[in-house]
Amino acid sequence: MICSRGSRPSSAHSRSNPMPDRIFDGNKLRDYRVIRRMSQSDLAAALDIRTNAVYRWENGLATPPQERLPGIAAMLGADLDELFPRPAPPNLADLRCDAGMRQSDTTRYTNSMSPMPIRAAEQGRRALSDEAVTALARAYNVTRAELLAAQRRSFGFDQPAVPEQTAPTAPTALVAQGARARRGDHPSAGTRVEPGRQEQAGRQSKEMPAQAATTIAEKIAYLRAELHGGTGPSDADLAVAGNGRGGPAVLTERLVRELRTGRRTTAPDGVLDALALAFDVPPVYFRSSDPGVHRLVVSARAVHNEFTIMAARGGEQEISREARDQLRDFISDTMAEILGTGEDEPRTP
């Protein structure tokens, strides 16, 4: 089955032509196969296809479906982008094909009965729900920012590639930061303790510490710098994500832009909660002015993102049940130590 991209949207922002597929060169495929000392029948057997299909590919008589290309590259021990380069950043269909999936395969990850929402998003007709964005990002092994950028391209908008992110802070650093936050300590100048520090931070300073994030704009900038490589989802995507779970639509692209740029400095709790939903952080992040809370939330989200990627790659299978139980106890005890027992707080009658 060829990896279909469907038709493009008819809006004024849409492009007249679909984004190009990965470039397939039969001669290049043959060269890689020969270097690997594989016969056509060997490659065909590895891909569970007929030998004639490989013959047709290499001689320019046919082209493999786009979702086949990752498997071919893997069997030849080749880098996907090197063997089958793509001349433009990916849209939603491209990400799915890079994961080796058909549209029908996505339902197991979105827990839906039909791939129609995926098809509609790939054709630029209806945006994915926030839950689907998270589920597909995990399934496609990309970040939410990368998937949201791909969705924008599917709707016909020019969207640059999302910069690669560095590894988030390790869990041990999360514990240390949380303990400092509870004691009220602040990192010394020049100490790098914030999680997931990126090489780029957009228009905001790359060194903005959590304790400086007091306004809504600064809190948004801190999340974009620490979790999204300084770029983050667009204002329109944030509005869609914040309104994505039903109820009244409280966010608009214009409102998000005004809050992000500081043109609007206050917002009701409902708007703050929608922003938190859009960034996938608890509401306390935007409601609280405590820098310790900000550091702890961002650290936890960075660690969660890292282990979510590991789980998507099957990494959780390497952890035994006994080890998982010990880790749960350790995390529970550590968070109790960081947050306190609440015994010194006034009790509610």
How would you portray this structure in words?
- With 349 residues, the chain is mainly α.
- The protein has 3 domains: 26-83, lambda repressor-like DNA-binding domains (434 Repressor (Amino-terminal Domain), Orthogonal Bundle), CATH 1.10.260.40; 92-154, lambda repressor-like DNA-binding domains (434 Repressor (Amino-terminal Domain), Orthogonal Bundle); 171-339, no CATH class.
- It is 50% helix and 0% strand.
- The protein has 18 helices and no strands.
- The chain has helices at 26-35, 40-47, 51-58, 69-75, 80-83, 92-98, 107-110, 116-122, 130-140, 144-154, 171-183, 216-227, 235-242, 253-261, 269-279, 284-287, 291-312, 321-339.
- The longest helix has 22 residues, at 291-312.
- The protein is globular, with a radius of gyration of 23 Å.
- It starts with 25 loop residues before the first helix and ends in a 10-residue tail after the last helix.
- 34% of the residues are buried.
- Residues 4-17, 165-211 and 343-349 have low confidence and may be disordered.
Report a brief summary of the structure:
Helices cover 50% and strands 0% of the residues.
Draw up the topology in text.
Layout: H1 26-35, H2 40-47, H3 51-58, H4 69-75, H5 80-83, H6 92-98, H7 107-110, H8 116-122, H9 130-140, H10 144-154, H11 171-183, H12 216-227, H13 235-242, H14 253-261, H15 269-279, H16 284-287, H17 291-312, H18 321-339
Helix pairs in contact: 2-3, 6-10, 9-10, 11-17, 11-18, 12-17, 13-14, 13-15
Pfam families: HTH_3 (PF01381)
Biased composition (Polar residues): 7-17
GO molecular function, one term: DNA binding
